[in-house]
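Journal club prep, shared notes

We agreed each person brings one worked example of a sequence with its structure written out as tokens. Mine is DNA-binding transcriptional LysR family regulator. I'm keeping it raw so we can talk through how to read the token line rather than staring at a rendered picture. Sequence first:
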Amino acid sequence: MFELSHLRCFVAVAEELHFGRAAARLNLTQPPLSRQIQLLEHTLDVKLLERTSRSVSLTRAGHSFLPEARRLLRLAEGAALAARRTASGDVGSITLGFTAASGYDFLPRLITQFRAAAPGIDLVLKEMVSTDQFESLTSGLIDVGLVRPTFNRREVVSLCVVREPLMMAAPEGHPLTRAPEVQLAELDRQPMVTYSPYEARYFYDLLATLFATAGITPRYVQHISQVHSILGLVKAGIGVALIPRAARNLRFEGVALRPLAAGTSPTVELHAIWRPGNTNPAIPALQHTLQDLVTRSDSDLWLDDH
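Then the structure, token by token:
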């Protein structure tokens, strides 16, 4: 089988129609160049060049073979370039897990900035709850996750990318919407749509701690996993709810949002996580974009590597 070096030598001679100039172009002497052409002709079992003491010309077979030789060289160069770009992280793909709530604000901003910064890298998006993301991360099914901080930090690198307060959601016209903000004490004995202790453990524990510390007892009427479903039940008048501030981007018709009184809302966090041993060369580009988004944020965020 012929080698790429044979093709390069043939193309150089075919384009120069002069062994001396072709040898100089390839930084060779003429004898090794002639030997390469002979090996190629022997491999193909066809004569490609007519040689005399004064001239070199292509045979009909040589004319036919020249564009194919050029194409093969371009393909080889393209394959090498693609391999180098993949190894350097300029091209490739990253499988990104995300929670539904991260799609209300942070995920769209991340995708927009990352596509501009790394157009050669595809994001494969997988929506799943935080616990499923962690399992998928450790098994290698996803490269990076956007999760609530319910994970074992010793096994991952964690970057806190969002900190936000909770807001109260109530049906329009509800008495609690008359004031510009809500006191926690006003939620005591209020019918409340809250979070599932299974699919939304982070929010369930967050609210349980909040209410226990404040000494109030809402009257839970439903336990739901997703924020948009909770808002639908609030609109139906079943009860009020506490939701992350990013959910205001949903602009749910028939639902009024009010902040909790200053200093009373716990902080809701969203973290980006990845395994330190992941060898995907495209990941550093996403890490750079994540860190850039954090740097631009007004919040006090940090990289936490355990």
